[in-house]
Structure formats: structure tokens, C-alpha cells
Amino acid sequence: MVPSLNAQVDQPQQGGGHHGLQGMRERLSALQGELEADPGAHGGFSVCLRLPLR
Q1: Where is this region: Disordered (predicted)?
Q2: Are 49 and 28 in contact (CB under 8 A)?
């Protein structure tokens, strides 16, 4: 596992198709990867991506 990356969004982006997490899941699935998305431990949001090395 690699260290986490923390990012803060002051103003969430508006519009779009609202397919962000679903699109990420579909792309990861094609690569035999996984995605977990949950509320962050100290507020915010946590996203964990796992990809096989081979």
C-alpha cells in the first residue's frame, strides 16, 4: 500500500454527469482493481484504490 494523499476541496465542482465514483469503479474493474469510498475519519471523504501489480 502507498501512503495516502489528502486533498481539500473548498468549492465542490457543479454540473457534470455525476458518474465520478461509478466511472472510477468501472475503470478499476477493467484492470482487476477495487475502489472503496467512505466518509473520512476526521471529516471529508476517503477514497481507496487498489490495483494489482501485474
Answers
A1: 1-24
A2: yes
pTM: 0.57
Both ends of the chain: CA-CA distance in Å? Answer: 15
Residues 37, 40: Cα–Cα separation, whole Å: 9
Q: What angle do CA 1, 28, 46 make, to 5 degrees?
A: 55
At 1-54, the pLDDT tens digits run 555 666 666 666 666 666 788 888 898 899 999 999 888 777 788 888 888 887
Residue 33 makes CB contacts below 8 A (sequence gap 6+) with 27, 49, 50, 51, 52
